Amino acid sequence: MMTRNELLAALPGLTDAALDALTRAGIVRPVQSEAGPRFRPIDVARLTLAMELEDAYDLDADALALVLSLIDQVHGLRGEMRAMLSAVAAEPPETRARMREIITMTRLTLRG
Amino acid sequence: MANDPYAALGVAKTASEAEIKKAYRRIAKADHPDLNDDPAAHERFKAASAAYDLLKDPDQRARFDRGEIDAQGQERPQRRYYRDFSEGPGNPYRPEANYGDFSDVFADLFGEGGARRTRAGGFGGFGGTGGGARSFDVRGQDHRYTLEVDFLTAARGGTTRITLPDGHSLDVQIPAGTRDGQTIRLRGKGGPGMGEGGPGDALLAITVADDPDWRRDGDDITTVLPITLDEAVLGAKVEAQTLDGPVKLTVPRGASSGQKLRLRGRGLTGPGGVRGDQHVELRIVLPPRIDDELAAFLERWRENHAYDPRGTRRGGKP
Predict the structure, then answer these.
(1) Nearest Cβ partner of A23 from B1, B165, B209?
(2) How many domains does chain A have?
(3) Other beta carbons within 10 Å of B22
(4) Could you tell me which residues come within 8 angstroms of residue B107 by beta carbon, excluding any fewer than 6 positions away?
(5) Low-confidence stretches of chain A (pLDDT beneath 70)
(6) CA B151 to CA B89: how far, in whole Å?
(7) CATH of domain B215-305
(8) Chain A contact for B72 (CB, 8 A cutoff)
(9) Across the interface, do A49 and B121 touch by the CB < 8 Å criterion?
(10) pLDDT tens digit string along B248-259?
(11) What pLDDT does residue B197 have?
(12) Residue B75 pLDDT > 70, yes or no?
């Protein structure tokens, strides 16, 4: 994990003030330790993405928080979906056929 | 800062080629190791030379400015994108996924970790509790934080201070025997509610930092106690650290390195309130210098008392 100074050195585009603002908005929540905040690799990647989104779309803190939250949800769902599909892939074809039926039914109901 | 060649030369990122050259020359004159004895000057010169090597070449400089190479001129390591982290389980930023009637199925397949995640701040909490008939009363969001505490604070209990995103500090009680992965809930310290809805909670996920001096195995802990050669041979009463402070420990006559003494009930507080044990591992430390007297004595001693600790299966005493 990185200290605040190591983080600022690793992300040249990130200023002191910008990091404070992103922390205040809850967009990054570093690990709290006795020696001050510590940044995990996920925090570094998240900050990089946040800066790029800010730059590209002129987002304010609220909008950025919303976008990141949606990204978290989509990424999380995608991870779970992939795990689910790999479980299905390991099943025999008959299981898959039964699942296909249920999926078709469920989706028809949803469309109604 | 070794990672910023501009800082090493003391120039702005917008400095012209001439300015960079001038800055380098100034440092080279003042701090050249052949002209200046000061080790700090040597470091400054080294940093400035490396920086100048990089920046004097416009192509290299442009690549550095674009972030393609680092200050050492190396290609930057392959970037890790956010999804490399956020698709996996345990993304601390991800709001709880709510699968409604299928929550049980989800928990069954994806394990406790999938279901245990509570509303993780952000925008996951719209389906909050406490709505009832007056649907405008919504309980505030829970805010999640990760808190790292050192081993002794977690084991003994104590207070640690955290800073909330809004800048407020909060003293958090860490109960004795807190484990890695445990969550502490601070009621009402989360986001504000709407209408009559109360505020959410702050949820602190605790990570306990490793401590080289205190190894943990379940509720038991192991510490290492260095002893002198004479204490090992003759036995002694020496002081050892426990979670409850120092205690006097009897080292038996003829103790070996690796031998463990058990202090019953000095370990971590288990779930039922029962404490584990502390194991004190003895480690014989020889004097910093082997004097002639000791060497002469052992040479004499060896003639009549030689033994082979490797001859017995467990390397114990003969």
Answers:
(1) B165
(2) 1
(3) 13
(4) B114, B115
(5) 111-112
(6) 26
(7) 2.60.260.20
(8) no
(9) no
(10) 999 999 999 999
(11) 80
(12) no
Of B3, B87, B150, the CB nearest to A79: B87
Residue A49: give its domain's CATH number. 1.10.1660.10
Residues B165, A29: C-beta atoms closer than 8 Å: yes
Chain A CB contacts of B85 below 8 Å = 41-42, 45-46
Mean pLDDT along residues B75-84: 73
Are A48 and B76 a contacting pair, CB within 8 Å?
Answer: no
Task: Give domain B138-210's CATH superfamily.
Answer: Urease metallochaperone UreE, N-terminal domain (2.60.260.20)
Distance from CA of B81 to the nearest CA of A (A): 6
Domain region containing A17: 4-111
What confidence tier does B279 reach under pLDDT thresholds 50, 70, 90? very high
Token pair in block for residue A48: 């990089």
Quote the minimal CA–CA distance from A54 to chain B in Å: 15
Write down the ipTM of this complex: 0.81
Point out the residue among B92, B123, B148 whose CB comes nearest to the CB of A69: B123
- Select the residue of B110, B145, B146 nearest A80 (Cβ to Cβ): B110
Look at A66 and B86 and tell me if their CB atoms are within 8 Å: no
Give the pLDDT confidence score for residue B97 in this predicted structure: 75
CATH 1.10.287.110 matches B5-65: yes
Residue to substitute from A52, A66, A72, interface B, most B β-carbons within 10 A: A72
Burial class (CB in 10 A: 0-12, 13-18, 19+), B107: middle
pLDDT exceeds 60 at position B318: no
3-class secondary-structure state, position A81: helix
Residues of chain A with pLDDT > 90, as a percent, come to 36
| Sheet containing B215-217: order of strands | B215-217, B220-228, B278-285, B260-263
Q: What is the mean pLDDT of residues B226-248?
A: 93
Residues paired with B183 in a beta bridge = B205
